[in-house]
Specification:
single chain, 195 residues, alpha/beta, Rossmann fold, 6 helices, 44% helix, Sc_DH/Rdtase_CS, L-xylulose/Carbonyl_redctase
Length: 195
């Protein structure tokens, strides 16, 4: 659908490979940080490996890629927009999600600091915070009907999000239609957080 987009395939947890690949790409005006992992373990069983992998991908990669892209935006002297894909889990505790909830909460705060520090350079930074989205990862983690029914019962709209629900919210935050919006979290949760 967008022939001008060239995907870069790399392990975002690899700091040096990311620096080389993203640093050679561009110029950038827009960035969406969407990569994430969800390793679900009860709090008492969280492993160091699960914690490290989650921190590397869900937080460190966002910080690093955003640094590279924002530096290029500033050097070009152009306004820009960054959208970080967070989660409703950044604001509500979920069983077996100790690490995931924590990394997404950290991502929300990182995004606010980025918005504050990058605002003078005319770079806006926001998050979208969806409920469960029916991606491959969403289907894997929410395929148990008993587990999914319990979650859906807490969503006033009575369903999980589809990919387009999140994409449309991201497009809004990237566009000039949200020109005065920065440091905000757009909930795409079907009302989960108000229930």
């Amino acid at each position: 659908q967008c022939p001008g987009i060239e995907p870069l395939c790399l392990d975002l947890a690899d700091w040096d490979a990311t620096e080389a690949a993203v640093g050679a790409a561009g110029p950038f005006e827009l960035l969406v940080n969407n990569a994430a992992v969800a390793v679900l373990q009860p709090f008492l069983e969280v492993t160091r490996a699960a914690l490290q992998r989650s921190l590397d991908v869900n937080l460190q990669a966002v910080l690093h890629v955003s640094q590279i892209v924002a530096r290029q935006m500033i050097a070009q002297g152009v306004p820009g927009a960054i959208v970080n894909v967070s989660s409703q889990a950044s604001q509500r505790a979920l069983r077996d999600h100790a690490v995931y909830c924590s990394t997404k909460s950290a991502l929300d705060m990182l995004s606010k600091v980025m918005a504050m520090e990058l605002g003078p350079h005319k770079i806006r930074v926001n998050t979208v915070n969806p409920t469960v989205v029916m991606t491959d990862m969403g289907r894997i983690n929410w395929s148990d009907p008993q587990k999914s029914a319990a979650m859906i019962s807490r969503i006033p709209l009575g369903k999980f999000a589809e990919v387009d629900d999140v994409v449309n919210s991201i497009l809004f935050l990237l566009s000039d239609k949200s020109a005065m919006t920065t440091g905000s979290s757009l909930m795409v949760d079907g009302g989960f957080l108000v229930s």
